[in-house]
Write a structure and sequence with these properties.
- The chain is mainly alpha-helical.
- It has a single domain (about 5-20, about 30-80), classed as Non-ribosomal Peptide Synthetase Peptidyl Carrier Protein, Chain A.
- It is about 55% helix and about 0% strand.
- It is built from four helices and no strands.
- The protein is globular, with a radius of gyration of 11 Å.
Length: about 80
């Protein structure tokens, strides 16, 4: 699974779960919380759904250190390889 495919799955899940994201440009420098107003439950759901679809597992301790979408994709990409 390459970076572009991971980003596509993540964006799709963000659009489905976080209100107000549909039709908005999403890039790797964005933060789900700061830029899109996601609450903690929405963030957990986006991450969980994305991990299930990608068939990967990232430890919660590593996920808690993520501050933007780029860092999240980096973790997913590393777990997928």
């Amino acid at each position: 699974m390459n970076r572009s495919e991971i980003f596509t799955v993540l964006k799709s899940n963000m659009t489905a779960i976080i209100d107000g994201v549909e039709g908005v440009e999403i890039n790797e420098t964005n933060s789900m919380v700061n830029d899109f107003g996601a609450d903690s439950l929405e963030v957990v759901e986006v991450i969980s759904r994305t991990q299930r679809q990608l068939r990967i597992k990232v430890p919660r301790t590593k996920l808690s250190q993520v501050s933007n979408i780029k860092e999240l994709i980096d973790l997913f990409e590393k777990a997928a390889s």
